Amino acid sequence: MRSKLLRLIALLTTLWALAACGAASEPTTAPAPTETVPTAEATPMAPPPATVAPTPTAVLAFTATFEDAPCPMALPEGAVEGRDIRCGYVATPERHALPQGKMIQLAVAVIPSSSGDPAPDPLVMLSGGPGESALNAFTQLLALPGMERLWAQRDVVLVEQRGTMYSTPFLQCPSMLAAKLEIMRQSLSEEEEDALRLQAWAECRDQFVASGVDLAAYNSLENAADIVAIADALGYGQVNLYGGSYGSLLAQHVMRDYPERIRSAVLSDVSPLRHGPNMREKALSMDRALRMLFAQCATDEACNHAYPDLEAVYWDLVTQLDETPATLELTDPNTGETHEMVLTGERLVAATRNLLCLAAALPRLPNAIYDMAEGDFSLVALIESRFTFSLGLADGMYNSVVCNELADVSRADMIGPEGLYPQVSAVVADLVDDIMLQPCPVWGVEHLGGALDQSLVGEIPTLLLSGEFDPTVPPHLAEVAAEGLANAYLFTFPGMSHGILGSGACAHDMMLAFLDDPAQAPDASCLDAMPGLAFHVPPTELALEPFVDEARGFRGLVPSGWQALGPANLARASSVNDPAYFVLEAQPVSAAELFASLAGQLGLDPEAEPTIEAPLGALTWQLYDFEIQSNPLDLALAEDGGKAYFVLLISPAGEHEAMYEQLFLPAVEAMGPLG
After folding, report:
1. Whether 452 and 593 share a structural domain
2. Where a domain ends, among 473, 492, 522?
3. Which of 294, 373, 634, 671 is the most buried (most CB within 10 A)?
4. In sequence order, which residues have a C-beta less than 8 Å from that of residue 412 and are 6 or more positions away?
5. Is the pLDDT of residue 40 over 80?
6. How confident is the model at residue 58 (pLDDT cuts 50, 70, 90)?
7. Taken in order 377, 380, 386, 387, is the CA torsion positive or negative?
8. Within this chain, do residues 491 and 638 fall inside the same structural domain, yes or no?
9. Largest Cα–Cα distance in the chain?
10. How confident is the model at residue 15 (pLDDT cuts 50, 70, 90)?
11. Beta sheet of 103-111, edge-to-edge order
12. pLDDT band at residue 409 under the 50/70/90 scheme
């Protein structure tokens, strides 16, 4: 049972590990906001600091070394530091063209190969954002079932890019979270919102410049040189690259500037170097994903029956919220503090883009739209809480990369082709303008020029993986990235969105086959077996059937038609991301011992008290309620005759009430010893 429970928890973790949704999402930070936010007039904006454009260097002009240090991030349960993972730092120049100048520290984690004879070329993993913490994102992601195969034959190296959470300096802007909270809790004019953002950016910029940070040095060229420096410090020659989202863009810079060091590359959620199509088609990309959602629900008999006219219901809701906004309560999962958010129609469209990024949310979007039409905005509140208070994103690093490399367009360039939803065109243009274009004159770094905006040309074997529903870098952008690559293999994953890594065995198998032999395309037959988007349509009533376990000496009820992972250990598995999970168990231990074991396995509060203690059926039960990765977890414990009994249910948040009444309580009442 332990391994199955841990696999479930790891699966749920991917919902947030893969949540970053590309270049038009607003970077956020998690420190507590200040009491008040200065007005735009409170602090005059200083002139932009002088910048120096970097130049890539084919050979690094300094010797990098690796220094061991304690791992700064949380490790998965059971992982032993020094045996399963090794952490440390590599010092590199802030400007690689000035090797005797200021040095910065890059955090690195190495997962050693489990092979006695590992391949000499490691897999170097680059995270997205820009500004996401690789050590936070990948360490937990690599605990997913099947991911251990990635380091079965070669080392895996996690690189905390310059400016990100565990590297020094960490370019995080607390003033931006304060400004965002101020904006979202009220309906301000566009001019008032702009003033708050620009003042926060200026405050953040001044803080970094005063501390000696060269903001222009935090770009993909310097970042690419860092990757080679880290490989040198660890004693590797050629390496394999994995990059997701912005990590895919960075990987292409490494491939262009240091091709002799790269054996192969896996690019996921692909952002092309020739960024014009990406930047100018942000609205088109979201429009495409939203229309696919509506169209697939309309052609799915069960979805269309449960949620007819979904497109019309959604846009009526947007109009209604523009006329009469709703007020949501967002909860900071790091502190428990709550903050109000005024939800207008425009903000709902922006929030929908975040929802479309999450493959785990896609099957439930039709249900969520109907719930919102009836006044229940719980899913939006949940998702916006996670995006708003995401820990560890280096928004200063985000600004530097965007302003150095991507912000060579205007708002007029954002206007999509005719035929798009007008609300999507307007909202996405606002997002790009607010988050990517407006900060650059304040941030004070010069654009590096059009030479970087050229497709990569070369023969490095490259595997490019895209999600069918990705609303920010859809599959056709992988084609743009591959247009100059002689050995490129492109694949689209049906029913998936942003974040292919960790999506399941198909992606893992294809990556492993490619890494074993990059000279040929991996077997992609598993894609044909993927069901695509399986909409969640809650059943009107759950069917239960009797269960008897002679070996463990108990009887009870289990849900009919669920996938059996073991005796009385079942997953509904209505889609690849369905968290519904149910267990009956009896063990020859005390209830206290069994609770302590479960709390350790699931990360529950070991000091938690039962919400109720009552006789149900043959036993007296202690009932607990928890939350695990935003899904309700209900637990019932009883003790009788030297044996402890438990019933466990994890249910999707939107179905909790029905599953609690129709499955959990009847199962608790029916469970008891044989005889």
Report:
1. no
2. 522
3. 671
4. none
5. no
6. low
7. negative
8. no
9. 83
10. very low
11. 66-68, 86-93, 103-111, 156-159, 123-126, 239-244, 262-268, 462-467, 488-493
12. confident
In a domain, 24, yes or no: no
Residues 573, 665 share a domain: yes
Is position 380 within any domain?
no
Q: Over 80: is that where the pLDDT of 43 sits?
A: no
The domain that holds 645 is classified in CATH as 3.40.1000.10
pLDDT at 46: 34
Residues 143 and 248 in one domain: yes
Q: Are 436 and 396 in contact (CB under 8 A)?
A: no
**Is 11 inside any structural domain?**
no
Does residue 151 lie within any of the structural domains?
yes
* Phi, psi torsion values for 545, nearest 5 degrees: -135, 150
| CATH, residue 240 | 3.40.50.1820
The reply to whether 507 and 608 lie within a common domain is no
Q: Across the chain, what does the average pLDDT equal?
A: 87
Q: What is the mean pLDDT of residues 512-530?
A: 95
CB atoms within 10 A of CB 103: 12
Q: How far apart are CA 259 and CA 256, in angstroms?
A: 6
Domain that holds residue 650: 544-673
Residue 414's pLDDT is 74
Instruction: Give buried/exposed letters for 550-574 (b at 16+ CB in 10 A, else e).
Output: eebbbbbbbbeebeebeebbbbbeb
Quote the pLDDT of residue 391: 67
The residue behind tokens 């004019």 is 189
Distances (CA, A) of 350 to 130, 346, 347, 626: 20, 6, 5, 30
Tell me the one-letter amino acid at 289: A
Taking CA atoms, 379 is separated from 26, 184, 255, 291, in Å, by 19, 17, 40, 20
506 with 573, same domain: the answer is no
Predicted confidence (pLDDT) at residue 491 exceeds the cutoff of 60: yes
Q: 192 with 198: CB under 8 angstroms?
A: no
Number of structural domains the chain divides into: 2
Nearest-angstrom CA–CA distance, 514 and 463: 7
Cβ partners under 8 Å of residue 402, min gap 6? 23, 130, 436, 439, 440
**Are 555 and 499 in the same domain?**
no
- Identify whether residues 153 and 104 lie together within a single domain: yes
Phi, psi of 613 (to 5 degrees): -130, 120
Taking CA 602 as the corner, what is the angle to CA 600 and CA 605, rounded to the nearest 5 degrees? 65
Residues 586-606: tens digit of each pLDDT: 999 999 999 999 888 888 889
